[in-house]
Amino acid sequence: MKSLTLELNGSKITYEVEPRETLADFLRERCRLTATHLGCEHGVCGACTVAVDGQATRSCLRLAIMCDGRSVRTLEGLEDDPTMEVLRRHFHQSHALQCGFCTPGMLMMGRDILLRMANPDAVTVRDQLSGQICRCTGYSGIVKAIVAAGRELGEADTSRSESSAQ
Amino acid sequence: MKAAAFDYAVAKTVAEANALLGSNGATTAAIAGGQSLLPMLNLRVALPDLLVDIGRLEELKEIGATPTSIRIGALTTHAAIEDGKLPDDFGGLMQKVASKISYRAVRNHGTIGGSVALADPAADWPGCLLALGAQVRIAGRKGTRSQPIGEFVRGQYSTSLAADEIILGFDVPRPKAALRWGFFKVARKSGAFANSIAFAVSHSRGGPASVVLAAAADRPCLLSSVAERIKAGEESEHALRSVIAKDVAEHVPQNDAYLMRLHTSTVLRAVREVQAK
């Protein structure tokens, strides 16, 4: 066992972990944070996407011990995040989930897309989302929700910069 | 889908990485981004006794330019290249290639050094760096060495790396004039490993050119007759197709009709892209 210290959703925590333990298993089994779902466990489905040092990461493709000293954020830690608040609302409005298994990964990746790109169109969102699999094939609602959230956030940015210019 | 047990150590210096990787009697593996190694560990295709984490070695993160070459540290991620963190002497080629590797969450951690060290025949960087004439810088217990990438990659998942050695980075010669390039790849799904990848680069009209086909043979191959035709300014599609088919057949001998058409088509599209620039 090795000692692992990291910042998880804003709190510093220390655990003893096995080197072979993935970040995904660590989050679910030791920290009991079960929003992070495990689909394929080899980097294909995207259900386990979290943010490590602010970067979208497949938690099945990261050993927990590799995150020593780093900052990890899961869906549970984004309850008050302004981007996630808008995205969550549009997921609800656009009926962007069916069974819900892929949803945490879709939300994490959707947020990542919206933080990197202003007001992305549907083609861009589809391309950026190609690593996230929804086995219910509910993609059109998911894409619609992310595009709509991007538009709302874009409008908020424009009105903010306009009011600051005045 | 859970990895078998292994030991894990973080290398604090390159020398320490070399010493740990060269440990007698143990199967060792270096891990950087781990985006290929983790699936292999999870599927138990790779079964190391000791995993040496080289992901924190600052020397491997160096990005810079000398008068003659661009130096790319082995730990440079695909995402960093996609986001334009390298000095762009290659007219956006590396940025484009990076943006088409797997998915953003993988590109955030996957490294150029890891991609070349694994030498998957369907990977993008070995072929791209071959087209650009890159040198690989390598450190081992006996010191450092440098080798052209065409010699470094020996075959499918096979390189000249000894057990104790790691890649420090790459030196890519800076083109003297604006580089014209073409890049085309066919994958069944965006982000999946490719079925065929072609790179074509031309250093000014009538100047040196190189054409590389990857994901076809056990390692990327230089199509020298096609490169000669680009240099000579060949425009005829018929002539280009026949010379491409000849070069492809030489490197991919047991080709079936579909693969032959596929590879000919990717190479032709890359060549056409160069010619259109």
CATH architecture of the largest domain in chain B: 2-Layer Sandwich
Number of strands of chain B: 14
The CATH class assignment of the largest domain in chain A is: Mainly Alpha
Helix-strand pattern of chain A, N to C? EEHEEEHHHH
**Strand order of the main beta sheet of chain B, please?**
4-5-10-6-7
Structural class of chain A: alpha+beta
CATH topology of the largest domain in chain A: DNA polymerase, domain 1
**Tally of alpha and pi helices of chain A:** 5
Q: Largest sheet of chain B, if any?
A: 5 strands, antiparallel
Question: Can you describe this structure?
Answer:
The complex is a heterodimer of chains A (166) and B (277). Chain A is an alpha+beta fold. Chain A folds into two domains: 76 residues, Roll (Ubiquitin-like (UB roll)); 82 residues, Orthogonal Bundle (DNA polymerase, domain 1), CATH 1.10.150. Chain A has a five-stranded mixed beta sheet with strand order 2-1-5-3-4, with helices on both faces. The mean pLDDT of chain A is 95. In chain B, helix 9 packs antiparallel against helix 10. Classes of the chains: A alpha+beta (166), B alpha+beta (277). The interface between A and B is medium-sized, with 30 and 31 residues.
